[in-house]
Amino acid sequence: MLDDLGQGFVETVPGAAGGVRYVPELTGLEAREFALKLAAELAQEKRYLPGGFVYLTDLLFNPALMENIGRIFATRFRPLKPEWVVTVETKGIPVALFTARALGVSAVIIRRESRVTEGPAVSINYLSGSTRHIQTMSLPRRALPPGARVVLVDDFMRAGGTARGMMDLMAEFGATVLGIGMLVTMQEPETKLVPDYFSLLVLKEAPETGQKLVVRPAAWLEGGKNNHAGGDCGSSQCGEVDPV
Description:
This protein has helices at residues 28-42, 57-60, 63-77, 93-103, 161-172, 235-238; strands spanning 8-13, 19-24, 48-49, 53-54, 84-88, 106-110, 121-127, 134-140, 149-157, 176-186, 198-203, 215-217. By secondary structure, it is of the alpha/beta class. It has one domain (27-238): Rossmann fold. Helix 3 crosses helix 4. It is globular, with a radius of gyration of 18 Å.
């Protein structure tokens, strides 16, 4: 029944330490309907911020919403068998925590600057894809073991500079990046600084007035492209949502 409803599945684990466990997921029609509702909420004019951004903070810290987002991300990532979910502070933390919870693994948070309470750290400089400014990110050496299998998540991506920085930082730890997931990506620029990713929602470039903000579920939710979620697809298939 859980499988039919797209809510996950129950599996039996053999052996002395085995048993029966519920694996949470959100797939099919349930995932699409959730993405459509979220897109309609984000398309409201009041959420527009200068520079083409959308106000997300209240949604990111809503546990009921984030639980569903974590399930959708976990559904995409579970076949890759990740060991860690990695994000960068601050607004990516809820996405990472709920994704890690659904996957049954731990989350790792990259900081903008190192903290003395976390011991020796690896820091790198990276170029922001949107502002073209040099920024810094840092991760304690004890945060990840060598050869860790990780997935990267975050709340928003425009050009992919932060995601590219996270990938470079993972290379310093010898970690294998299995996939990248974003809650919202900008449709433009179409070519991002990361080669492979998926997102839940796609935001079209909005005018300065914010009156024609358009947010739609990514193509893969409609059976379209699996990656590069900002790619081209017809509006009738992408579930394009205009503000009322």
